[in-house]
Amino acid sequence: MRKIIAITQVTLDGVMQAPGSPEEDPSNGFTHGGWAMPFMDDAGGQVIGEIIAGEFDMLLGRRTYEIFASYWPNQGDDNPIAKAFNKATKYVVTRSLDCLDWKNSQRIGGDVVGEVRRLKASDGPPLHIWGSCELLQTLIAAGLVDEYHLWVFPLVLGEGKRLFEHGVPPRNLALVETRSTPRGVLINTYRPTGARNSVAKKSEVGCRETANRSRYEYRT
Questions:
Q1: For 93-134, how does the pLDDT look when each residue is reduced to its tens digit (9 = 90+)?
Q2: Which of 22, 145, 195, 196 sits between 20 and 30 A of 202, alpha carbons compared?
Q3: In this predicted model, what pLDDT tens digit does every residue of 70-89 receive, in sequence order?
């Protein structure tokens, strides 16, 4: 079974929209595009190099695919990111794109959750999700993301599309690795450990037991 890994740049208030450039995603009047770039440095580049060093395929939403497809195929193989991305199989979730020109690209349509479940159950390397905010909401809700590589940047935007939007199911996450860069970016790796509801119910039971003991002690 393949592992699905979300590689996401977020602000301290959870915004993931358009980290790379102003033109990346100006939807809903978003004017802060490119917010991540002032914080990138050699340490961040080293981490990206580690991420792309192994075998992987990519799982992308339409908007992210179009942005990547307009740039990375035009970079030479002397660019290690371009070389890795061009080599990887790209699974693209889209209802509007019928022709995918970037080599090694395959379309996923229809029942997205069912198709991704089948893809996840197949043999192959891990599936990396870069960006793809809307796709991520669907996969998070379905419990299909195995690991989050979150790049947490030291700024607050107050608006924009967020990684965990309203309506995602409560989950517990375990921090399995953390690193930092000289410019203050935290690079954290989290893995889901289970639904939050079961923990909440245990906590409620514990609170009731404590309250009952307190009332008993007060009366005696």
A1: 998 888 899 999 999 988 999 999 999 999 999 999 999 999
A2: 145
A3: 999 999 889 999 999 999 99
Query: Rounded to whole angstroms, how far apart are CA atoms 155 and 152?
Result: 9
Q: What is the separation of C-alpha 207 from the centre of its chain, rounded to a whole number of angstroms?
A: 35
- Options 3.40.50.720, 3.40.430.10, 3.40.525.10, 3.10.590.10; CATH of 4-195: 3.40.430.10
> In the block, which residue shows the tokens 């693209």?
92
**CA 59, 161, 136: angle at the middle one, nearest 5?**
25
User: For all residues of the chain together, what is the average pLDDT?
Assistant: 90
Q: How confident is the model at residue 35 (pLDDT cuts 50, 70, 90)?
A: very high
